[in-house]
Amino acid sequence: MIEVQGLYKSFGKVKAVQNVSFSAANGQITGLLGPNGAGKSTTLRMLYTLLKPDSGFARIDGFDVTAAPLDVQTHIGVLSDSQGLYPRLTARENIRYFGQLHDMQGEALEKQMEQLIGLLDMASIADRRTEGFSTGERLKVAIARALVHDPRNVLLDEPTNGLDVKSTRAMRQFILRLRDAGKCILFTSHIMQEVAALCDQIVIISNGEVAAQGTPAELLRKTGRDNLEDAFIAALGSEEGLQ
Amino acid sequence: MKKVWIIFIKEMLDSLRDYRSWSTGLFWAIFGPLMMGGILMMIGSSVRDEIDKPLTLPVQYAENAPNLIRFLEQHEVVIEPAPADPEAAVKRGEVNVVLIIPEEYADDFSASQSATVRLVLDNSRQSAQVDINRIQDLLEGYSAYLGRLRLIVRGVSPEVIEAVIIEEVDVSTPQSRATLFISFLPYFIIFAIFNGAAPIVTDTTAGERERRSLEPLLINPAPRWVFVLGKLLAAFPFSFASLAITLIGFGIVFNVLPVEDYLGVQLGLTAATLLLILLVCLPIVFLASAIQMLVASFARSTKEAGTYLPFIALIPSLPGLALAFFPVKPELWTMLIPTFGQQILINQFMRLEPVSTSDAVVSTLVTLVLSVGITLLAIRLYNREQIVIIKS
Questions:
Q1: Domain boundaries, position A54
Q2: In Å, how far is A227's CA from the nearest CA of chain B?
């Protein structure tokens, strides 16, 4: 459960996020859609505690991101824009490291890792050093290490960026499975087809502000259009930056 | 604290697998001893060559002073004919020194007057110094010997002309005479400590940012000081290993090479001395890791860090270089400068001088306090949100 209320964030004179409010429920996929530079990643970074909001608040499972960052961190799994791995460690060692940093150890950790490795179909690469992995293989490791502590809330920043068609499909399947497992999923994208295909809730962000939000059906009704693409454009006011 | 250990173990494993980095560090650790060994052997062999070689002396008009020539030959001087133009030959460096015996020598000598001989030499030529000194000593010896004989012939005791006798009491132990050589040692030791830590520190900070793994790492639930401390501690074993290897290297060089033959002195680099040096250098392991970590954390890439760190390693080594030319007495103020105090202590240990415990304690404490301060600064840096905004 993620609640965001009146978030503001500026970098010098650049107003990256202005008065963003939305909430994301458990068992649902919430998509932050917007052109590049709209403030999606900045919003997400405030949620995963690396940036502090100038004002407003955000709560994850009731924990405030500013007041209780450590509690927030234990309740989220994050696939950020930075997905760097440790090239001299094997995939399994990469995942284990993050598990240990989440206070996991021994049997429980190994079991959870094994489950994720099976789920992500990465048994064949699990004991290889990650140096030289393909983009898809690297992404699998990054996802596994983000979810090794079985968090209830999953934040994904442009998770299909740079993936080929096959990997993109696998990624979407995986996100749907997470939803079916009852997780609260928040992900950002600038690809409207992707958001349309996956999301139960859509938050459209433009120039750091929320332009529109609701279920796909609500968005159609609010904008008076008969397809989502037109609805997005109507909400944004221009086609700039959308694919 | 448990997470500090987790991070430490991960960084150790990661760094040990990066054998290229630590083998480069290893090279720096043995570079000092190898270079010192090489210099010692070169100096040693050239000094020994010149002393062992019989002195050949070109003499012009040797027939004017047969007794002097005989005296020189008795002292293992090989007399050979002088070149046609002695001054030009010395100037060109063909011969080191030429003795010219003027025609009036024999007459002056027979008349018991001061007879003049002329030495042609070039005082600015370093390589000729040994020959010049030896021939001057021999000629003075001959002169003094004859002078005494003349006094005795006249019934005067030779002591009449020796109003003052200079008796030398040399208080330098054999070790301290080799100070010039060993005063370069602290330089290499400090350098090795910094270089041992540098590759690890670079990889765990700037490298983490460069490969875009810093952001995911910092999202893990732990206060930032845990990450800083884990990474800092991971540099210690490598820095320490570099220090230990350098010291062992110096121990081998100075104990295996016949330094006594080369320099006429024995150096006090026993196992016990090396251990004491190791102990006073331990705080520098902390300092070198912390300061390099702070600097590398500002760098966007390992390459950028690689341009900063060598300067950091150089700064504390500068006093060591100065020490080689301007020896400083161990006073309290010198102990207040981290790395400088240790270099003076190292010098004292090697010269087998008594080392004041309070000096060692002050030097250690000051270094530790500074290191803790720098570590706190690094933690502050990691607590700022800019740490993840700086893009690689």
A1: 2-83+152-236
A2: 37
